[in-house]
Amino acid sequence: MAPYRRPRGTLNDPVPMGYVVERAAKDRFDAIADRLEISSAVFFERVVEHLELDERGVPVWWTYPVPSTDGELPIDEA
Questions:
Q1: Which residue from 13, 35, 38, 69 has the fewest beta carbons nearer than 10 Å?
Q2: How many Å from the N-terminal Cα to the C-terminal Cα in the chain?
Q3: pLDDT tens sequence across 5-53
Q4: CA–CA separation, 25 vs 41, rounded Å?
């Protein structure tokens, strides 16, 4: 893979990411970025920018339970 980099000094508030993920997921993510000829960091930023969220601010494809933050009880509608 070629090391694609953004131009130096173009980040406003850079922070390192220390997530531990499955190797297969990282390899797939990096391979997609490589095909686009951009860095994985730039690809990550674009993915986050384009996430479609529902009214709760949760990705529309998320199928796992989401904790309630507004005092509502998790009761299924009948």
A1: 13
A2: 52
A3: 888 888 999 999 999 999 999 999 999 999 999 999 999 999 999 999 9
A4: 14
Distance in angstroms (rounded) separating the CA atoms of residues 50 and 62: 15
pLDDT, tens digit, for every residue of 41-74?
999 999 999 999 998 899 999 988 887 766 666 6
Residue 8's identity, in one-letter code, is R
3-state helix, strand and coil shares in percent for the chain, rounded to the nearest 5: 30, 5, 65
Whose structure tokens read 């860095």?
A: 39
* Annotated domain spans of the chain: 19-62
Q: Which of 35, 37, 55, 59 is nearest to 47 (CA)?
A: 59
Residue 9, CA atoms < 13 Å, CB-side half-sphere? 0
DSSP state of 53: B
